[in-house]
């Protein structure tokens, strides 16, 4: 593999801005689970399930931003391959091991919905497929999404034909109350909750998000090999079409997903199948619209890109700050704030992290956790 010259800084800046934007969406998606820990009791009740805040978050945010983040993981891998050259295999193996270790620590100590262990495992598959052509990567990712969606539809058909097979699990008030008591108790109580809940939820995350994340890794790999962000003039004319498809189809489908998630049985599965495809359209519309905004209002990119450069630090930082607000590590406010106040906390946390990222990156090339990951990856001081 020949050494490839790094892309111009302004183009890297745009990629980091998109990553920073995705971090904000992930924060909004995750914070409801901290604010309402009863969801983890197995009752099937999602946090912030009623009212206008729930409608907005479910329609515009849930499942949309991890799609962007997963795509960027695949894209960034192509940049790393160019930098690492013939050392890509060893370095990626060490990086995945470091990510897996970091994910396990976060899962038991901070956030039971951690996705880093999944990314580390799928990163090994991505490493094995690093030499595939962009077209092959796109076709493979599309097949993964198609098969997953068809499985959801098949389950939906079976459930609709036999409604008794798709009944929702009844909520368990006692279990929900115990979960909240553990989360809002002392640090040892919260750690007990984490230890009891994380292993089962980690399996759910792997099965529920793994196929889609792998598909997006492959799409990102194809885009990176094609220098999609580095040569935007090649696809700029397609932006209006992406926005029309993304907002014109993605938004109604997202509204259907929100409606279906409040129903039981088959329609909920239909919503998952539809969302499996259309969430990509809406996420793509978000990204191209943000890139247009970044070019027209550089201050937007300047605010987001430092956080994107330190994505791992910000991802872990979100968990730390949410724990300090909602769990026994700090204020223990879980279950006591209305949905609008929860979104206010999310805005404050994101603003704080953007500010800290801008301050830190003025004097450093990498974020705090990125320094550790880089050291393990490169095996250098």
TrEMBL record:
- UniProt-listed InterPro entries: Bact_Transport_Assoc, DUF418
Q: Which residues cross the membrane?
A: 20-41, 53-77, 97-126, 138-161, 201-223, 244-261, 273-294, 315-334, 340-361
Pfam families documented for this protein: DUF418
Q: What is this protein called?
A: DUF418 domain-containing protein
Lineage runs: Bacteria, Bacillati, Actinomycetota, Actinomycetes, Streptosporangiales
For this UniProt record, give its keywords in alphabetical order, as a comma-separated list.
Membrane, Transmembrane, Transmembrane helix
* Keyword Transmembrane helix assigned: yes
Every DUF418 domain range: 223-378
């Amino acid at each position: 593999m020949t050494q490839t010259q790094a892309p111009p800084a302004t183009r890297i800046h745009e990629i980091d801005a998109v990553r920073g934007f995705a971090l904000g969406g992930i924060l909004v998606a995750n914070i409801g689970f901290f604010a309402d820990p009863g969801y983890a009791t197995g009752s099937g009740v999602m946090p912030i399930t009623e009212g206008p805040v729930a409608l907005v978050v479910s329609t515009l945010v849930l499942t949309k931003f991890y799609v962007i983040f997963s795509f960027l993981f695949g894209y960034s891998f192509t940049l790393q391959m160019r930098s690492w050259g013939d050392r890509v295999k060893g370095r990626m193996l060490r990086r995945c091991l470091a990510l897996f270790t970091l994910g396990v620590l976060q899962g038991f100590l901070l956030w039971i919905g951690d996705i880093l262990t999944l990314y580390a495992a799928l990163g090994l598959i991505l490493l094995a497929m690093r030499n595939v052509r962009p077209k092959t990567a796109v076709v493979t990712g599309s097949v993964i999404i198609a098969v997953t969606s068809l499985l959801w539809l098949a389950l939906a058909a079976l459930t609709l034909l036999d409604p008794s097979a798709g009944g929702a699990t009844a909520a368990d008030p006692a279990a929900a109350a115990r979960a909240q008591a553990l989360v809002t108790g002392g640090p040892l109580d919260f750690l007990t909750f984490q230890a009891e809940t994380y292993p089962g939820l980690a399996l759910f995350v792997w099965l529920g998000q793994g196929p889609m994340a792998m598909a997006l890794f492959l799409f990102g790999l194809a885009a990176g090999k094609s220098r999609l962000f580095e040569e935007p003039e090649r696809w700029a004319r397609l932006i209006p079409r992406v926005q029309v498809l993304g907002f014109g189809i993605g938004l109604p489908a997202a509204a259907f997903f929100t409606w279906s998630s409040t129903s039981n049985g088959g329609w909920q599965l239909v919503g998952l199948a539809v969302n499996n495809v259309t969430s990509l359209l809406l996420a793509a519309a978000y990204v191209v619209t943000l890139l247009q905004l970044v070019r027209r209002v550089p201050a937007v990119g300047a605010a987001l890109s430092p956080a994107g450069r330190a994505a791992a630090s910000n991802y872990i930082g979100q968990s730390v700050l949410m724990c300090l607000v909602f769990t026994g590590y700090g204020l223990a406010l879980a279950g006591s704030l209305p949905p609008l106040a929860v979104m206010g906390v999310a805005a404050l946390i994101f603003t704080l992290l953007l500010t800290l990222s801008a301050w830190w990156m003025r004097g450093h090339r990498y974020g705090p956790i990125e320094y550790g990951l880089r050291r393990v990856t490169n095996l250098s001081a």
